[in-house]
Amino acid sequence: MTQPPSQDNSVRTPGSIRTGIATGALVAALALTGGGVALAGGGGISSGGGGGGGGDRYDRYWDDFRYKDKRWAKKTSECESGRDPNAYNSSGPYYGAFQFLKSTWSSSPKSPGGKPTRYNWKTQAVVAVKLKHRDGKGHWPVCG
Questions:
Q1: CA nearest 112: which of 54, 50, 37, 55?
Q2: pLDDT digits (tens, 9 = 90+) for 54-103
Q3: Per-residue DSSP letters for 121-140?
Q4: Architecture field, domain 24-139
Q5: Cβ neighbours of residue 91 under 8 Å, at least 6 residues apart?
Q6: Selection from 122, 124, 97, 129 nearest residue 113 by Cα
Q7: Domain ranges of the chain
Q8: Does the N-terminal or the C-terminal CB of the chain have fewer CB atoms within 10 Å?
Q9: Is the pTM of this model over 0.90?
């Protein structure tokens, strides 16, 4: 009998770098689709990192941001999670590179819904920058 793959349930504290968890369902979905699944609304799932598919609307949003916003996103996500789009902290619980509460993610501008960890770094960064434009840096009191 085979054992299920182990999961890393690490807790990230502000300013530390830890890895998040990857669910078997997401890994299977990515394997079956060659790395991406299109969702209603155009926010695809990607294997993480900064890319995503060319022509993706989040790529276009990212390209339209000023250098200052891109620098803020890189610095803030590095501090929050080590830029890990799959990061998880059970104390919130907080999800993704920017350590979103699920409720904050869902109500943020340009959020594709679901959990942040279902999306790549660039999609999370677009949502974080748009949220910062709307609400200021208060969602990231330590790192923002």
A1: 37
A2: 348 999 999 999 999 999 999 999 999 999 999 999 999 999 999 999 99
A3: HHHHHHHHHHHHHHH-GGG-
A4: Orthogonal Bundle (1.10)
A5: 11
A6: 124
A7: 24-139
A8: N
A9: no
